[in-house]
Each structure stands twice: as structure tokens, then as C-alpha cells.
Here is the input.
Amino acid sequence: MRPSTLITPIPPGLHVGIIMDGNGRWAVARGLPRPAGHRRGAETVRAIVEAAPDLGVRTLTLYAFSSDNWRRPEREVAALMRLFRAYLRGETRRLMRNGVKLSVIGRRDRLELPVTAAIEAAEAATAGGTTLHLRLAIDYSSRDALARAATAVSRDGGVAVTTDSLGVALGAAYGGGAAAPDVDLLIRTGGERRLSDFLLWECAYAELWFSDVMWPAFTAQDLGAAVSDFHSRERRFGGLVAQPVQAPAARAV
Ligand code: IPE
Ligand code: IPE
Ligand code: MG
Here is the structure.
């Protein structure tokens, strides 16, 4: 059994997805090379992972590297891959101590062996975590995940493609365990207001929060502000706001 398929029950709670954007601009604004922004971004990841459980977050999906990010200069991609490896190796003990179960979602076949080895080791070591499910999206494309899930379901001769069967296949297509969980709150830092091929299916009813703060400068307080705003929203899922029950009007006789 692959480590990522080990099922550990995580108590129900919020699923927050974060598009961690703005590392490069944060660095350039300080006269630093872009990878310095990615390194500072990894420190933000640690702070946010540690703050999340107390805010009621039980699943946290972080967009670390999109499948389109392969288009970046080779040096930047190489620096990012080194950083993923260092993060996975360096953080595993801390994640275990904090009860974090780590899964990586995305394609693995294009990652270099030392990166996939670090992923598998971190997943296996943290599989027993029950406080927070941290899902790191690496070489992730939501559209590719959907295409793979649809292919898997249609290969299942005679089984109709339903939202349920596709959701389950989507969870299986890209790792991370059970059926793709719905996102409650989607945060994007760095000022852009787009999804960039992240969790398109899972965000069907997500509340959206866009922050102008660059990811390396994003703090636990910023996460707290987003979560508290989330709690002030009214989620209707296509239904109606609950109306106070009114006594039927007296009928004229
Ligand atoms: C997000 O920061 C991290 C990755 C995409 C890997 P960027 O590197 O996109 O930073 P900006 O958007 O160029 O500032
Ligand atoms: C999205 O950011 C990917 C990650 C944060 C990992 P990008 O910086 O790659 O997205 P675009 O190019 O601005 O849409
Ligand atoms: Mg960006």
C-alpha cells in the first residue's frame, strides 16, 4: 500500500485552500533573488500550519507548484525542488510532533527521485497525524486531475459518471487519500484574483478571500482574519436563507 493511501481519521472541521502567491515579488521588492522569496515563503508555511488547528482548520491544502510552473527558468524550478526536499526532510519531525498528517497531491512522474523519496518518507512518517491534514500541491493541475479522474471512471465499464464517482476518482487520481474534499475557504495572497488551475472542482461552493499581502509576509493573524470573515458569511448552497416562520394570515370569511 502506498503511504498516501493510508487512511487516518481527521476530525471534521474547515478545509482551507491557499494559493501561496507573491514570493517572487516580495523578494524583488527587497533587491533579493526570487528563490529568497520562496525560502521565506517556506517559513510562512510553518507558521500557518501551526496556527491552523486553533482556528478550526482540519484540512489545509497549499498550492506549492503548479504544473504550469514548469515554464519558469530552469534555475528557479531547481531552487524550488531543492526547497521542497529540504522542507519535507527538515519539517517531518515537527509535523509529527504537532499531529500533522502530510499528503502531497499532484503528479509524481515528473519529479526527480530525491523529491519523490522525500515525499514518500514524509507521508509515511506522518501518516498517524490526527490534528491537521496538510495537503501540499506539487506539480498540480486541477484540469489534469479532472481529466484523469474522468478517464478512470469511464474505464470502469458501465458505471455512470456521477458527481460522487468523479469526486472519489479525483481523490484517487492525484493522491491525498479519500474523495476530494470540498473547500470551505479559498485564500489567494499576492494581490491576483484568479484560481490558476487550483481545486476547480473542490471549490464549487468555496468562500473566496483575496489578500494583497505577499505570501512571505502573510501571518497567522492574516489567516485568523480570513477565517473570522468566513464565519460571518452566509452560505446558502443554492437554497434560501432561513426565514422566520410566519403565522398564516387570517382568512376573511
Ligand atoms: C508563488 O510565488 C510560488 C510559486 C508559484 C512557486 P510566485 O513565485 O508566483 O511569486 P510572484 O507571483 O512572481 O511574486
Ligand atoms: C499559482 O501562482 C501557483 C502557485 C501559487 C503555486 P502563479 O504565480 O504560478 O499563477 P499565475 O501565473 O499568476 O496565474
Ligand atoms: Mg505568482
